[in-house]
C-alpha cells in the first residue's frame, strides 16, 4: 500500500472516530507537510469521503434520507447538543418555539421534568413526545405536513405563528454560513422559520458540524439574526471567528 493510501486510510479513520479533523493536527500526526494534507483532503472530497472546511474537514452530510431514517441515526453529537440546550438554555417557565429537525426533536425529548412553560411545536413527532411530559403546555401549530422534513408549513402555519410571541426559538438548522446566513431547501419551511425568528426574543440555532459553512436555495435570515449558535465537536478558533465576527455567541459542546 502506498504512502498516499496509508494517509487517506488514516484520515478517514480519524474522521469516523471524531467527526472532524484539522490540517495542522494531521500534518503533525502523519509527519508530512500542510500542502500534502490539503492535497489529500481535496482528493478525499472528490471521492465523497469528506467535506473540506476552513482548516480541516468533516464527515459528508447524511441528510438525504427520510425523516424517519435520519431521526433513527445514532448521532452522539446531535444528542449532546440537544441535551445541553434543553438543560441549560430553556428556562422552566419559558414560551419556546421548537422548529423542525432531528436535533430539535432531541431537544423535546430532553426537556427537564421541571419545565412548566409552553412549547409551540411545528413537528408532529415532537408534539407526541411532549404529550407525555408531566408539566409542559404543548401547542401544535397546524398546516400541511412536509413529509421529508416532518414539519407543518404553509400560509396558515405562518399566520398562526404570528399570533404568538416566544421567549426563545430553537431553530433547526439545515445550513448556516457566516456571510450567507441561515438557509433551507424548502420555500415553505423558509417562511415558517422566518416567522418564528420574527416572533421570538432570543434565537438559538442548533447545528451539527456538517451544517456549518453550507448554504441551501432559500435564505431564512442573516447570520446576525441568531443570538447563539450551539454546535458539537471542537473546531479551530480561526474557523469559528467567522461566525463570531457576525455577532454570534458560539457554544461548542
Description:
The strands form four sheets. The protein has a seven-stranded parallel sheet with strand order 6-5-4-9-12-14-15, sandwiched between helices. It has a three-stranded antiparallel sheet with strand order 1-3-2. Strands 10-11-13 form a three-stranded antiparallel sheet, covered by helices on one side. The protein has 253 residues and is an alpha/beta fold. The chain has two domains: 56 residues, Arc Repressor Mutant, subunit A (Orthogonal Bundle), CATH 1.10.10.10; 186 residues, Rossmann fold. The protein has ten helices and 15 strands. Strand 10 and strand 11 form a beta hairpin.
Sum this structure up briefly.
This protein has helices at 3-18, 23-30, 34-46, 67-72, 76-88, 102-109, 124-130, 155-161, 187-198, 237-244; strands at 20-22, 51-53, 56-58, 95-98, 118-121, 137-140, 144-146, 151-153, 166-172, 175-177, 181-184, 200-207, 218-221, 228-231, 249-252. It is α/β, with parallel strands linked by helices. The chain has 2 domains: 3-58, Orthogonal Bundle (Arc Repressor Mutant, subunit A); 67-252, Rossmann fold (3-Layer(aba) Sandwich).
Structural class: alpha/beta
Please count the helical segments.
Answer: 10
CATH architecture of the largest domain: 3-Layer(aba) Sandwich
Q: Please give the CATH class of the largest domain.
A: Alpha Beta
Low-pLDDT regions: none
Strand content: 15-25%
* Lateral strand order in the biggest sheet: 6-5-4-9-12-14-15
The number of strands is 15
Helical fraction equals 25-40%
**Helix-strand sequence:** HEHHEEHHEHEHEEEHEEEHEEEHE
The total number of structural domains is 2
Distance between the termini: 37 Å
Let me know the average pLDDT. Answer: 90
CATH topology of the largest domain: Rossmann fold
Report the principal-axis shape.
elongated
- Rounded to an integer in angstroms, the radius of gyration calculated over CA atoms is 19 Å
Amino acid at each position: 500500500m502506498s504512502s498516499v493510501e496509508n494517509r487517506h486510510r488514516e484520515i478517514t479513520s480519524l474522521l469516523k472516530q471524531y467527526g472532524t479533523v484539522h490540517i495542522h493536527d494531521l500534518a503533525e500526526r502523519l509527519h508530512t507537510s500542510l500542502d500534502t494534507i490539503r492535497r489529500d483532503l481535496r482528493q478525499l472530497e472528490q471521492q465523497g469521503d469528506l467535506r473540506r472546511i476552513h482548516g480541516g474537514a468533516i464527515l459528508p452530510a447524511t441528510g438525504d434520507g427520510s425523516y424517519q431514517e435520519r431521526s433513527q441515526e445514532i448521532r452522539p453529537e446531535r444528542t449532546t447538543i440537544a441535551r445541553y440546550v434543553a438543560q441549560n438554555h430553556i428556562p422552566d417557565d419559558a414560551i419556546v418555539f421548537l422548529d423542525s429537525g432531528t436535533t430539535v426533536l432531541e431537544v423535546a425529548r430532553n426537556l427537564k421534568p421541571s419545565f412548566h412553560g409552553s412549547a409551540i411545536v411545528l413537528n408532529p413527532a415532537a408534539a407526541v413526545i411532549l404529550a407525555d411530559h408531566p408539566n409542559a403546555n404543548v401547542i401544535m401549530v397546524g398546516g400541511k405536513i412536509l413529509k421529508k422534513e416532518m414539519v407543518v408549513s404553509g400560509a396558515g402555519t405562518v399566520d398562526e405563528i404570528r399570533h404568538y410571541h416566544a421567549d426563545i426559538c430553537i431553530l433547526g438548522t439545515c445550513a448556516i454560513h457566516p456571510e450567507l446566513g441561515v438557509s433551507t431547501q424548502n420555500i415553505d419551511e423558509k417562511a415558517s422559520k422566518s416567522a418564528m425568528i420574527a416572533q421570538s426574543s432570543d434565537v438559538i440555532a442548533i447545528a451539527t458540524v456538517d451544517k456549518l459553512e453550507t448554504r441551501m436555495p432559500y435564505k431564512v435570515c442573516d447570520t446576525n439574526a441568531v443570538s447563539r449558535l450551539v454546535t458539537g465537536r471542537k473546531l479551530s478558533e480561526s474557523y469559528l471567528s467567522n461566525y463570531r465576527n457576525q455577532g454570534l455567541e458560539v457554544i461548542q459542546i
